[in-house]
Every structure is written in structure tokens, then in C-alpha cells.
Amino acid sequence: MIIPPFLQPGDTIAIVCPAGFMALEKAQTCIDTLQQWGYKVRIGATLGSDSANYFSGTDAGRLADLQHALDDPSVNAILCGRGGYGLSRIIDTIDFTAFRQTPKWLIGYSDITVLHAHVFHQYDTATLHSPMAGAFNDGGAVSEGVLSLRRSLTGEPAAYTCPTHGFNRHGKATAPLVGGNLSILAHLVGSPSDIDTRGKLLFLEDVGEYLYNLDRMLRQLKRSGKLAHLAGLLAGGFTDCKDTARPFGATIEEIIRDVVSEYDYPVCFGFPVSHGVDNVALKMGVTHTLIVSDEPTLLVE
């Protein structure tokens, strides 16, 4: 596993939007905070672009902006302004040649799971699943999620705990950590960005999905073998889940419990990674230790 260099004061973080549109003013608190942390900030052409539709620019424009940040040797990390949708439209045309020669931290979550999974699968390089620019707003700059991003960028060890849950399956496992947004991971099955979960700690989260669709996507992961040989499973937040007029008949926790009931690896529910306030930074591909006991804990080795 290749781990990019951790950041030093004076290093440069580029902010780009390779998927959905984000107004520049929505990222201003993030820009100010990163500068207060001692970093230089470079604003990509896609942040606050003049796009008139959902995306932050055309496919070609979003590709060019991300490519420039990947290729620029003076950029030490790339923070995605927001997720949404769009990376799967350009991921196969990104040139990672310069990135492989000089790895840098790629930061974000949600649709950015495409980038995390692709870089892990194709180039065995660690990335950072973490809050993005919008998380700094409305007092979020001092939230645990954003502060965990700050610590992660400098290489500070992490130890995350969460409340116990009645569906937890106790145990301990040490393995590389992979995962992200459930919808994206199901979307990537069978593609060049599909991740190998065998012997890994897998974490999952999602937002705004119907319960039946969450069940369907988890069944897709199971049928494709993604859940059979895990070292452990961390179920994060499934924010704003929706139900149909005729109830599905199970909560998301019950759905996950039932889907993995035949396996014997440790399972932790309620882990603080989500589209909500609880969203800590996680180093993708890096070895962690999961301890599920009375107080479940995830440690970076």
C-alpha cells in the first residue's frame, strides 16, 4: 500500500468539483479554515463555475480541472468540494501517470467513493474518505469530523469509538479499510473500479435511499461475493432513509444484520461515518484494527 506524504505547513490543497456544482461562497469558510491551519489553497476552475446544470462543468471541463490538480507537482492534496454525481462519467479517462509518480491525498466522500475505489483497486494507493468543503459551514469547522480531517492530513493516529448496539457482533480484526457510499459501491460492481473486499474491513453509509433499495444494493454486494470474506463490517449512518407507502417491514439495521447473519466476522453498527454531522476521516486502504466489544473502537495501526 502506497501512502501519500502527510502535509506540512505551507503545503497546497487544491479544491475541485469533479461531480456536482458548488457555489464559491459555499466553500469560503473551508478556504479560510484551511488557510488558518497553515495551508495554501488553490481554487479549481470547477468551484463556482458558470455551469447552468447539475454538474460543475462539462465532462471535459471537470476532467481537465481534476487532471490539472493531479498533475501539478506543487499540489499536495486534492479536496473535492462536494459529491453528488459525475465521477463515473470521467473516471476511465483520468490519467494517473503523474499521480503514481508523486502520490497526493485525494479527499472526499459520497460520489467521491468512485475515486477512492478506483485508486485503491488500480494503484494500491491510500486516499482519505472525509468531510468536504460544505462541512465547514454553520460552525462545522470545529466539528469532530472536520477536526479529524485536520489530524489525518498531518498523519496523527486516530482512534474512533461509538456507542454499543444490540446487533453488534463482537470480535477483533486487523486489516486494510475499504468502503464508502453503498450506492456507489453497488454501482461499481463489475467495473474497473470495483474493489476487492476479501480480508478487508468494509464500512458502508448512504443517504436518502428507500429501505427496499438499500436491501437490494446490499443483496447485490452479497451476490457478487463482497460480503462473504470480510475481516469485519462497520455500518455507518444511513441518513434520511425513506419507506414506501406499504412498509418494507425492516429497519436498515435489521436489513444489514440479516444480510450478513451467516458470516462470523465482527460487525459494528452506528459507526460515525455518514452524510450527517457524524462523519470522521478514514484513511482508505490503510490497515486499521476494529475491536467490537462493549465500546466498539477503530484504531489506525
Order of strands across the main sheet:
6-13-12-7-8-9-10
Please give the largest β-sheet. Answer: 7 strands, mixed
CATH architecture of the largest domain: 3-Layer(aba) Sandwich
Query: Shape from CA axes?
Result: globular
Assigned CATH superfamily of the largest domain: Murein tetrapeptidase LD-carboxypeptidase, N-terminal domain
| Named CATH topology of the largest domain | Rossmann fold
Instruction: List SSEs in N-to-C order.
Output: EHEHEHEHEHEEHEHEHEEEE
Q: Helix count?
A: 8
Mean pLDDT over the residues: 97
- Radius of gyration, in angstroms, nearest whole number: 18 Å
How many structural domains does the protein architecture include? Answer: 2
Runs in which pLDDT lies below 50 for 5 or more consecutive residues are none
Got a strand count? 13
> Roughly what percent helix?
25-40%
Distance between the termini: 13 Å
Oligomer: single chain
β-sheet strand percentage: 15-25%
The helix-and-strand class reads alpha/beta
Which class of the largest domain in CATH terms? Answer: Alpha Beta
